[in-house]
Amino acid sequence: MNKELIILDKMTLDLEAKRVHSVGISQAINVKRLIEDYLDENFKGEDIVVCKLYLGQDNDYFKSLNFDIKFSDIFRSEMISPIDLHYKFIADNLPYCDILFVLVDGTIDRDITEELLMNIPLTAHIVYLYDNLLTDYSNGEFYKRFVKCDVDIQTYNRRSDVNPAINMLLNKLKKYQVKYLTSPEFASSEFVITQEVLKDDELLDYDKIVLVNGENIAEYNIRIREALSRSFSPTKRDKMINYSPVVARVPQDDYTTKIYNIPIYSELTVIDRITEPEPLIAPIYRFKYITPDDEEIEFEIPVNLDFIDSINEGAVDKDVDTLPPVGYKLYYSYAVPLYAMCRRYDKILLIISDESILNKSVVYTAIRYAKNSFKIVHGSNIVLE
């Protein structure tokens, strides 16, 4: 690669200055076209290898981008606690490259830059493409790289699978044109901002309930399951997410077994309980899961009921890792922490119980998971700073 400059949307990155670059973008930008236009303008006819790495779990968006490698293909996550993930890089999946584009389309809990640099050639450059309004769950480790982006692109293309009114609101939030939750921009039939406490039957109207940091997650899941007349333990048709990666073994017609590595925070549906719990032996449950390739699989795994009990009893995130490692750590997914969201839903309900954490980043991150409508329940009209 003999180019000294990278030009993105008429902006320039100096390749001689550093190896890691950051480009602040909007979630509504056409990333695929951005990269293609850049390559066509700057490297047409040159012998370079371009790699693209997607850090996120929005399967529909990922497919539309035609990226080389997906997040769950590159990393195996090992659960320490529900908010403190650790990723192990699998170097074999990242080929030789001159430029590695990394689209960060979700919340990351730690800085992965050194792991990437260790597994690409010394002459290669990393270009982070990142929506810099996403909520930071890395304690500043990773997101500090985007405080002062090399390039801040304000070119927007609407996502066709999202309500145009939501796209418009996200873009206005991105451009700092919305200051209060009571701003006129929220005055729409698709958006409801309220301080009213919702009844149990109203909670059932939403595809997903989002809690900023997982506060009161047990309360809302218990309320919804009671409204659905579900028993205390996981029951048929219950929706759950895995707080640790799952290895699913699926028998094939030729009597072999196919292994599926299910990434953390994936949504699983309970089919049935196969065995009863016994002392020091976790019960076996059968689940259904839809893979990123839209393949529906069924598999059986042991479930750690102590993990469920600990959350129901109000255990904080730091405590759950002390539980005995008996079965996989799953919990109900009717209400989930914001950091555990991994796909978009038609109707989202965002509940903010701690007004001190309400800011533009939180509202923006939550709304971007809504396809058609959303509702925000909060305590007061806080400034979106």
Give an account of the 3D structure:
- This protein has 385 residues and is of the alpha/beta class.
- It folds into two domains: 5-152, Rossmann fold, CATH 3.40.50; 163-385, no CATH class.
- Helix content is 18%, strand content 30%.
- It contains nine helices and 22 strands.
- The protein has helices at residues 31-42, 59-65, 71-74, 113-118, 164-174, 200-203, 217-227, 305-312, 360-367; strands spanning 5-8, 11-14, 20-25, 50-55, 69-70, 75-81, 84-89, 99-104, 125-131, 151-152, 191-194, 208-211, 239-242, 246-251, 257-262, 267-273, 284-290, 296-302, 330-332, 335-337, 345-351, 370-377.
- Helix 4 (113-118) links the parallel strand 8 (99-104) and strand 9 (125-131).
- Mean pLDDT is 81; it is low at 78-85.
Parts with pLDDT < 50 across at least 5 consecutive residues: 78-85
Placed side by side, the strands forming the largest sheet appear as 5-4-8-9-3-10
Number of strands: 22
Tally of alpha and pi helices:
9
Q: What is the strand content?
A: 25-35%
Most strands sheet: 6 strands, parallel
Averaged pLDDT: 81
When the domains are counted, the total is 2
Question: What general outline do the C-alpha atoms trace?
Answer: globular
Which structural category fits the helices and strands?
A: alpha/beta
* Distance, first to last CA: 42 Å
Radius of gyration: 22 Å
Helix proportion range: 10-25%
